[in-house]
From TrEMBL, chain A:
It is a multi-pass membrane protein. It holds the Pfam family BPD_transp_1. This is Sugar ABC transporter permease. Its main location: membrane. InterPro entries: MetI-like, MetI-like_sf. GO terms for cellular component: plasma membrane. The keyword Thylakoid does not apply. Coiled coil: none annotated. The chain crosses the membrane at residues 21-42, 80-107, 119-138, 150-170, 191-216, 270-287. Keywords: Cell membrane, Membrane, Transmembrane, Transmembrane helix, Transport. The lineage of its organism: Bacteria, Bacillati, Bacillota, Bacilli, Bacillales. GO terms for biological process: transmembrane transport.
TrEMBL record, chain B:
One of its GO terms (cellular component) is plasma membrane. Residues 75-292 form the ABC transmembrane type-1 domain. It is found in: Cell membrane. InterPro entries: ABC_transporter_permease, MetI-like, MetI-like_sf. This is Sugar ABC transporter permease. Belongs to the binding-protein-dependent transport system permease family. It holds the Pfam family BPD_transp_1. GO terms for biological process: transmembrane transport. Gene3D superfamilies: MetI-like (1.10.3720.10). It comes from the Bacteria. It is a multi-pass membrane protein.
Length: 302, 306
């Protein structure tokens, strides 16, 4: 940091210091704006229901209470089921999607493959033009996707943008590796599995995390295709509960809660939001840099 | 190409073709087959006949969509919201990136960047919960604050005129970290010799920002803006749906093509009309993305999409 400099006998800040101060103030304000909503949710989830009804949601709990969480964990059946669905869908979708993305990208990155441009265009065209929601929705239904876990896995499995990013990463792997392995008699699939995949670890980590985040945060496909409550993924379950607390009340009663029990609805909504987002907060410090890497690859490649 | 040559190539590349097969099947099934379903827009759909056997009804679906006045309303909303998002998001992100690059100490930059990036990681459902926390009439923090300051409460969820500002703010909030990191990467790649030369020439820091940093960011900015304009008729369904939902009080100011199509399909079951609206959006989107790509191509050939 530049220090204040004295000019013409007067004490004067240098332009660098001035900008520094402006920068610290504005960036601190922006950071506060970004973090305060999360603090609001956390505080609200730990506030006594009565206090919320009287005073509203506040940034610091007026009356501290863990009642919302104890209610949530007293009857955790639905929440656990939703967690199970989300974890299963995220794990299967990420592994399968990553494998298919990499395999597709590898073929498209092979300079000796005669039709690489045609196939690239075949994939890319789908980002320019599509049939819209309605034909796709009807076709998914025709494929028996209603109340089917495949409806949560398939739509996010392959993404043209991820294929392109992966392809440009693999294009930077020297051709000589593929060529010398071929001379040694390796098959194309063998080369992909044994040589290309291990060399692509950084790109696999980044794309894999993007895929996993997409699956974890997906609620849209459940909105369209999942009606059974035990099949709902976490985010959609949260959506339903936020939109319809009566549904929650019924579900809780069905799982054995006393009928005249005064349920903490407002604090419970916030507690559920925290529980549904918790894993992302927990892994965020560790995974963040992979996303930054992915974005900066995108920025450089355009 | 002769036929035998073609089959010879198929044999030669059979392993690679097999490796491509899953992805090809995937996009055939989930992207190209639905494109054929566009015929629905010209049909009077009924479930018993199915997509291809239902009777044709010419342009009636389109007539219905346009004559209801919905077409103009949702098209205008979609385009105006996206324009506002492009303007506000890029401006904020560039300012944040420049400030982070020019002034911040290393630890401050790292922590700030992490905090700004956090909203990118949460689902729109969680953003909806945050909005509820802030905007609810009885218990929302905004009204708590207004009352504390001695003002009257405001009924945000029943007042359409607040929502354009709210939606722009929420979108900016969620996209800030993402864009800041992209622009920061672009600034970091600027040749430091330029800055050193400017410093020797006695340029102050503001001159450096306006004469070096911003002009060097222009290519990135122009490309990102042009590509975003290419998608100007595609609404962010997740954002609109979780912020507005089925609150019809707000539709005049917040309904976009995507939410309109979704509602026509799932709530009103107007298959033909929603397919027509979707087709209309696809055509508009296709045309704008071609135009945008043409513009990018003129500006910088290497950065064009195709």
């Amino acid at each position: 940091m530049a220090s204040p400099t004295a000019t013409k006998g007067k004490f004067k800040f240098s332009d660098k210091t001035l900008l520094s101060i402006i920068g610290y103030i504005i960036m601190t304000l922006l950071a506060i704006v970004c973090i305060v909503p999360f603090i609001l949710i956390i505080s609200s989830s730990f506030t006594d229901e009565m206090a919320i009804t009287l005073n509203g949601y506040q940034i610091i709990p007026t009356v501290f209470s863990t009642e919302a969480y104890s209610v949530l964990f007293k009857y955790p059946k639905d929440m656990i089921a939703a967690y199970g669905v989300t974890i299963g869908v995220t794990a299967i979708g990420t592994v399968l999607g990553l494998f298919l993305t990499a395999m597709t990208a590898y073929v498209l990155s092979r300079r000796d493959f005669k039709w690489r441009n045609q196939f690239s265009f075949f994939f890319f065209f789908t980002t320019l033009f599509n049939g819209g929601l309605v034909p796709w929705y009807l076709m998914m239904n025709a494929l028996e996707m209603k109340d089917n876990y495949l409806a949560l896995v398939l739509p996010l499995l392959l993404n043209v943008f991820y294929i392109i990013v992966m392809k440009s990463f693999m294009s930077s792997i020297p051709d000589a590796i593929t060529e010398s392995a071929k001379i040694d008699g390796a098959t194309d699939f063998g080369i992909f599995i044994k040589l290309i995949l291990p060399l692509s670890k950084p790109a696999l980590a980044t794309i894999g995390l993007f895929l996993a985040l997409g699956y974890w945060n997906d609620w849209y496909n459940a909105l369209l295709f999942i009606g059974k409550s035990e099949m709902m993924p976490l985010q959609y379950y949260l959506y339903r509960m936020l939109a319809n607390m009566d549904g929650l009340r019924k579900a809780m009663m069905a799982s054995g809660m006393a009928v005249n029990f005064a349920m903490p609805t407002e604090s419970l909504k916030m507690a559920m939001t925290i529980v549904a987002t918790g894993p992302i907060f927990l892994v965020y410090p560790f995974i963040q840099r992979y996303f930054v890497k992915g974005l900066t690859i995108g920025a450089v490649k355009g | 190409m002769s036929k035998s040559g073609f089959w010879h190539d198929v044999k030669k590349y059979r392993a690679l073709l097999l490796m491509l097969a899953p992805a090809v099947l995937f996009f055939l099934l989930f992207a190209y087959v639905p494109m054929a379903g566009i015929v629905l827009a010209f049909k009077q759909y009924n479930y018993s006949d199915g997509i291809f056997a239902s009777p044709w009804n010419g342009l009636n679906n389109f007539r219905f969509f346009f004559e209801s006045g919905d077409a103009w309303r949702v098209t205008r909303n979609t385009a105006l919201y996206n324009l506002a998002f492009i303007l506000v998001n890029n401006l904020l992100q560039i300012v944040a990136a420049i400030l982070l690059f020019e002034v911040a100490g290393k630890w401050f930059r790292k922590i700030t960047q992490s905090i700004l990036f956090l909203p990118y990681f949460i689902s729109w459902v969680v953003v909806g919960a945050i909005a509820y926390n802030m905007f609810n009439y009885n218990v929302g923090t905004i009204n708590v604050a207004l009352e504390w300051l001695g003002f009257a409460k405001i009924d945000i969820y029943n007042t359409a005129s607040y929502w354009p500002f709210i939606l722009v703010a929420v979108t900016a909030w969620k996209a800030l970290g993402y864009g800041t990191i992209m622009y920061l990467a672009a600034i970091t790649s600027i040749d430091t010799e330029m800055y050193e030369a400017a410093e020797i020439d006695g340029a102050n820091i503001f001159q450096r920002i306006f004469k070096i940093t911003i002009p060097n960011l222009m290519p990135t900015l122009i490309i990102l803006v042009l590509l975003a304009i290419g998608n100007i008729f595609r609404g962010d369904f997740g954002m609109f749906y979780n912020m507005i939902g089925n609150n019809s009080m707000l539709f005049s100011a917040t309904d976009v093509i995507d939410t309109f199509v979704f509602r026509s399909l799932t709530t009103n079951n107007e298959i033909g009309m929603s397919a027509a609206a979707g087709f209309y959006q696809s055509i508009l989107g296709f045309a704008t993305i071609l135009l945008a790509n043409y513009a990018v191509r003129k500006y910088d050939k290497d950065r064009a999409l195709f």
